[in-house]
Structure formats: structure tokens, C-alpha cells
Amino acid sequence: xxxxxxxxxxxxxxxxxxxxxxxxxxxxxxxxxxxxxxxxxxxxxxxxxxxxxxxxxxxxxxxxxxxxxxxxxxxxxxxxxxxxxxx
Length: 87
Description:
The chain is mostly helical. The protein has helices at 2-20, 25-51, 57-83.
């Protein structure tokens, strides 16, 4: 389970990096959505870890709030990119 959380977390960063290297806003936005989905996957895995007793409530809340914050930042960045004319 820890490995799955780690892989999904790395996927967030990797998708942002890969999208940044793209040649267009639309391609970058596509990868930002992938990153946002990976953040959701981390949240899902955190719930599973909590339900199975692998993580305490306090640690769960901290990690969960961080994933929500990251998702919001990605969403705001997507909105920004959609509203600018050029990349």
C-alpha cells in the first residue's frame, strides 16, 4: 500500500513535468488533469490505509488535506492556462 501511495504521488509530479515539456497549452492541460487524477488516487489509497488501520486519523487528515490543496492548485493552474492566449 505504501508503494502504491508513493507511485501515485510520484505520478503527480511526473505528469506535471512531462506536461511542462509539451509544445502547447492543451497538451500541458491534459497532463495536469492526469496529475490531478493521481492526487485523487493518493486520497483513495489514504482512505484504504486508514480503514485497514495502517495510518492513524491524525496522519490521515494531514496527508488528505495536502492532497486536496495540491488538487486545488492544479485546478487553478489549469484555469489559468485555459484563459491565456499563448504558452
